[in-house]
Amino acid sequence: MKTCLECGDPIVGREDKKFCSDGCRNAYNNKINKDSTNYMRNINNKLRKNYRILSELNLEGKSKTTRAKLMSKGFDFEFFTNVLHTKSGNTYYFLYDQGYMVLDNDYYMLVKKDI
């Protein structure tokens, strides 16, 4: 007899079931996927916030904005997921599929990668 990975109750039904209910499945996965430390949680929150800001300002897939506008919304330039250096010498900073490139006079080019 198999038991639920979350609560230990007996499992009834399909042979490959791991949980006795959707509630136990959700509770188990929430525990597994939660951020393990406050430090990790804070970084993930900053990444999510930066991503949200870029998404709000870049509705067309390519646009321009100012540093002041990004900062007024709470954008933190220290947090990004990856950097792309192009052959032409440009550097793009990305948060998942949303990115930006520094231009002259405190302007930024916002771009979105096709996934």
Automatic annotation (TrEMBL):
Domain of life according to the entry: Bacteria
Protein name as catalogued: DUF2116 family Zn-ribbon domain-containing protein
